[in-house]
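Suppose a colleague, Dr. K., hands you the sequence of a protein chain of 324 amino acids and asks what its three-dimensional shape might be. Before reaching for any lab equipment, you can write down a predicted structure in token form. Begin with the sequence itself:
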Amino acid sequence: MPLGKTRDKILSGLSRARGRAHRYTLWRWAIAIVFTLLIAALPLLDVLRFDFWRGRHMWLGEELGLVEVAKRFAFPFLAVNILIVVVSRFLGRYLCGFVCPYGALARLSEWARFRGKTSAQRLSGWLALFVVCLLLSAIVFVFWVDPRVFLEGSPVAITVASVFLGGMTLSFFGCLFWLGQRFCREWCPSGVYFAVLAQNTLNGIEFAHPETCTECKACDKVCPMDLKPRELSGGAYRGGTGFYPQPLSNFALCIRCGDCVVACEDVNEARRDGPASLRMGWLPEGARDAVDRTQPAADELDGGGWQVGAGAGAPGPAADEEER
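The predicted structure, expressed as tokens, is then:
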């Protein structure tokens, strides 16, 4: 069964049993909405806008030349990127799990692909996703072109602007339709960058209560990165796939989305048998130092499967079938 379909069946079933949205879901959508509104406000309020139609480039409400706006934007842009590096280095890939707009939409694409019971329901889901892609593409568009081009522009300007906006929307939607979260697992260049930064963080998923684990493996099946959450600090490595070099520890690849914790909490809540086996947050002192993190040679890895370092346990199964 494809990874996305397995994820959806488990997470949607647990959600119905829970009867309410999980706290991680609420945080994820709240952060996504706030960040999207803040970014959309920049060009709409003339805080930052490059207008390649009329040449009215704006910075903090002042109309300046293209080069001058770019120079003034360079420092805050650099500062934000330094902050991202620091956050990723010490906290891990929470930006991927809770902030990335593509990651949020990839979850919507799973919903559109698997939750509809009829063709009409699935079609309505895809249409809703297309509208969201159009809105996000429009936000990117207004950073570069004044939207009044569609009302006041020449036929040529309107045509070029329409192709620009339509091309972004279709590219975004097509990536979600054909790749979904496989893009995050294999092809995201930012994900590779964050994974390299996050290899030695002291924050992430901990197998805190193994005594309550029932070996249901729901945590493995819902992980969007196709990892083994109970072994995140146990020395496991995955062979290179897509843009990801080999090998990288699954601790570095983890996007800290918390789906494994959601599944574990809900299963333990249904059984009412002690605390959840998995937790997400700061790891206790020495939790990473005690494990063997010896990096295996590339020829010891079975393709894209898992190889566990000495003393860390038996090798895990090969990755599940990719979502289609």
